[in-house]
Every structure is written in structure tokens, then in C-alpha cells.
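Box 3.1 A note on notation
Throughout this textbook, protein chains are presented in two layers. The first layer is the amino acid sequence; the second is a C-alpha cell string describing backbone geometry. Keep the layers aligned when reading.
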Amino acid sequence: MATQANSLANWRNLDLALGEDCLRIASYNVHRCVGRDRRCDVARVGQVIRELGCDIVGLQEVDSRSDGRHDSMQLDFLAAQTGMEAVAGHTIIRHEGSYGNALLTRRKVLAVRRHDLSYRRREPRGALEVDLDVAGETVRVIVTHLGLRPAERRYQVQQMLRLLHDIPPEQSVVVLGDINEWLPMGRPLRWLNNLLGHAPAERSFPSGLPLFALDRVWVRPRHTLLAFETHRSPCSRIASDHLPVKAIVAPAVPPASALVEHVPPQRQARSA
């Protein structure tokens, strides 16, 4: 599967050049912190998250059980290890604990909404919707993990499209997660691309020898997406069955009408 991120800037060079007003955001299916060696190691996943250098990380398959070495729940431990605030969006409850989507962030959390995307008797799924304060502007981040069957994914994306249509068009939006769609022309991908702009695709699964671009990041406005890449490191190749993907997002430029409204009266008169 060919990458579609070639037209974007080099992550490393751009990361060094840009300031904190730009978002560094990632999506990572941590597979309950069970690595390719079949060991559950939360600290190892925390190391990968620190390697990312992102201030917002959407997580999938976060388990609330300890790994036998740490007494705290996985999400709490990852938050403490990375120095980030945790927002849970659990979608599956079991007698031994719960797991699902979550968000780690260094940005101020303004609002949290959790949406049920479960389809019939399939494994429960959901979307975690979080409003963040980024340099005084509100950015809405939606973290999700779609189902394994085509009909399931189509239903879940249709529910997400309804959520997205209710968001004011001028508001910055980031949708990220494990989409579980490996067909480039699959309807769920086409529907999201049509609404939000084309998401770049880089192979992220399986982590040992990536073949499929299952993990995606959509950004609206699309032109604010500056860089995108799969994070490959010795630790990320073993810590989970997915590699994380990460993006750099620029602040949205206000529309021209908004800029005119903020021009002092004397300057408006001179330009008339």
C-alpha cells in the first residue's frame, strides 16, 4: 500500500522549527500494553509515548488492569509516567476491569463527551470527544476504534458523520484512531475523506512488519496538517501490535472577515 504522506513536510525538521502553538498529536493502539513478545509492560508503552514528543495522544485498547509489576491502572500509570492528563473513554466493561479509548494531553481540557458506537451484538465500540484549549482556541479531538466487520464500520462511521456535521465548520477538528479499514477505497475511509479531507496513509500494522495503514489522523481545516508519519523505533516495534502514527497541526487561520473585524477603525479607513 503506497503512502500518501509524501507531499507533507519532514516531521523532524518541522518539529524543530515550529513553536508550541502547533499541535503535535498521535494515535496509538497499545493492545492493552501487551507486546509482540506477549509480555504486558506498561512502562514500555510509556517509553514509546515519550518518544513521540506529542502533547496530545489518542489511545485505543487501554486496559485498566495492572501488568503485575505496577499497582496502578494502565491509564493512570501512563499519565504519571508521561506527565500528561488522562481522559478515559472506556467502552468495554468486564469483571476484571475496563478498556477502550483514552486521551493523554498537556493541553487544558475544556469539555468531554463519550459516544456509544456499538453495533448489534458485536464488541462494544465508542468515540471519545474532547475539547482542548490550544493557544486560546478550542480544538475538538475525537478518538475512536472501529469494528472488525465492514457493516460494523459503515454503521460506526455514519454515527460519527452525524457528530461531525453538528460541529461548527469554523472549529478545528482532529479525528484519529484505529479505523480497522485496510481497503483504500472502502466506504468508511471515503466518507471521512470526503468530509474532512484526505487522511495520509502510512503502514502501521502489524508493528513487526507493517503492511496495513489502519491508524489514521484527519484534520479540519485540511491545510493545517503539516506533517504525518509512522513512529518507528526499536521499542515501538515490540511494545504493541500497532505502530503509533503522529501529525503536526498548525493553528487554523481565521477567515478574512474575522480579520477585518479586528482591524482598528483608522486602519480600515486608510485601506478603503
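The chain has eight helices and eleven strands. Helices lie at 11-17, 42-52, 74-82, 150-165, 187-196, 236-239, 256-261, 265-271.
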